[in-house]
Amino acid sequence: MADVDALLYPGECVTLMIEAIWPSYRTLPNTLSPSAGVTTKGFVSFFLFWLFSLPALWFPVHKVRHLFTVKACYSPIAAIAFFAWAISRANGIGPIVHQPNTVHGSALGWAVVKAILTCIGNFAALIMNDPDFSRFARKPKDALWSQLFTIPIGFGITSFIGIIVSSSSEVIYGKSVWNPLTLLGKFLDGASSGQRFGIFVIALGFALAQLGTNISANSVSAGTDLTALMPRYLNIRRGSYVCAAIGLAMCPWNLVSSSNSFTTYLSAYSLFLSAIAGVMITDYYIIRRGYLDVRALYSARKSDPYYYTFGFSWRAYTAYICGILINIVGFAGAVGQKVPAGAQYIYNLNYFTGFLVSTAVYYLLVRVFPIPGMGTYWNEVDIDADGEFGVAYGQPVGDEESGPGKDRSSSISDPLPEDDQKGLKDSSKHAPDIPHF
Predict the structure, then answer these.
(1) With contact defined as beta carbons under 8 Å apart, do 237 and 57 qualify?
(2) What three-state secondary structure class fits 404?
(3) Are 165 and 80 contacting, i.e. CB atoms less than 8 angstroms apart?
(4) CA 358 to CA 43: how far, in whole Å?
(5) For a surface tag, which of 48, 125, 176, 381 has the fewest beta carbons within 10 Å of its beta carbon?
């Protein structure tokens, strides 16, 4: 799964929306045992969001883009409204930012480091799932520049709003409320009808944002991976529904029962993904130098560059495991076991250590045991050099990919821009000496 909180937090949003309309929902009796880890109200709200999100999984990515357009307009307005409301109730931003530090010295430094790594863990899945969406870009540059600015700026602004809103709770209520949705729920106490409407509008914006995150970070990525794993039986739509079923069965509320367990979950999450990112980036940018044979990705021929050893790359798996092992002792300390201080410090940098170790191990293994497709020159081009081809040999592109009335031959025969023609010629000149089909 990508973002478990993308499934759970909307349940809290649904709770706030219902409570804003029907205040009696706040006193809904709990019929579940304490061992369940969730109340009846929490589960009902979570299940309602899960249920209403299923229809959105039916549509292909390019057809659900309008939902993301609405989300991009509505959700930031809701977040800014909540930000302003929290500052107003705290009598300005001054009392919020002038609160004294609760930690000092090295403890403060490591707290900053942990916070940065938690933020990286929050979009570690995006780093891995990005190709599921960037593949729709016309050229690699189209995906590069937009993300280069929007991702750090977007996450920075969102984090700033969350920090200020959560910090305002210390001024308003005298204690920290780490979950902004919990703080929004406190605003319901003694709220007027107008204020309840405002809470409903803000909660709806958060739910819409999480719906988009759930589709992009969970459903599409899982559907794509499952399709590659079992293409005979699954497609992206079916894989998305499999992901939704697993997301319900895994009881995600246990992972975010407290701020400590939530940050531990994010750290462990990035622990595994960092090792994968290290292998992927090293293979594409350093080993193959931008070379990619799309047809060979779906081929089981031993002569193709991605066949490796019986279809598995033992070099990649070895590097992946090494990237995990460097952090595994520190992870044991994070969940309550007594470990050496050095292991804990390494774990505090888990994403960077996992990434660097897997990168180094994979690079050394490939140099000692070479693989097909290794490049000396940069081989990436801004177009599909192979022209028109299907997902597999001899299979035409499906109607869903091409679209009704789509004339692919015209797009292939159109003259290319001068820089694309140059990139294609350079790639053909310096491409690795392996068979193309």
Answers:
(1) yes
(2) coil
(3) no
(4) 39
(5) 176
Distance CA 421, CA 68 (A): 34
Which of these, 422, 413, 415, 410, lies nearest to 381 by C-alpha position?
422
Which residues lie closer than 8 Å to 155 by C-beta, 6 or more apart? 119, 122, 123
What would you report as the CA-atom Rg of the chain, rounded to the nearest whole angstrom? 25
User: Given this model, what pLDDT does residue 74 score?
Assistant: 93
Which CATH fold topology does 5-254 show? Hydantoin permease (1.10.4160)
> Is the pLDDT reported for residue 413 higher than 70?
no
Say how far apart CA 11 and CA 16 lie, in whole Å.
9
Reading the block at residue 11, the tokens are: 């349940």
Which ranges in 214-258 belong to alpha helices (H)? 220-229, 236-249
Q: What residue has token string 């349940």?
A: 11
Which residue, chain included where needed, has tokens 């942990």? 114
Diameter of the chain measured on Cα atoms: 73
pLDDT tens per residue, range 341-390: 888 888 888 889 999 999 999 999 999 999 988 888 887 765 555 445 44
- Is 209 exposed, middle or buried (CB count within 10 Å of its CB: 0-12, 13-18, 19+)? buried
Q: Rounded CA gap, 333 and 225, in Å?
A: 32
Domain ranges for the chain, please list them.
5-254, 269-387+407-430
Indicate the DSSP class of residue 204. H
How many residues are given for the chain?
437
Token look-up 């994070």 returns 334
Residue with tokens 């993301």: 68
Instruction: Give the whole-angstrom CA distance, residue 306 versus residue 371.
Output: 9
Number of H helices, E strands in the chain: 20, 0
**Tens digit of each residue's pLDDT (9 = 90 or more) over 52-89:** 999 989 888 778 878 888 998 999 999 999 999 999 99
Residue 235 has pLDDT above 60, yes or no: yes
Q: Which residue has the tokens 């790639």?
A: 427
3-state secondary structure of 426: helix
The amino acid at residue 31 is T
CA neighbor of 325 nearest in space, from 279, 358, 280? 358
The single residue listed with the structure tokens 């304490």 is 34
218 DSSP assignment: I
Q: Which two tokens stand for residue 353?
A: 């250590």
Give dist(CA 200, CA 14) in Å, integer: 9
Helix (H, G, I), strand (E, B) or coil at 374: coil
> What SS3 state is found at 119?
helix
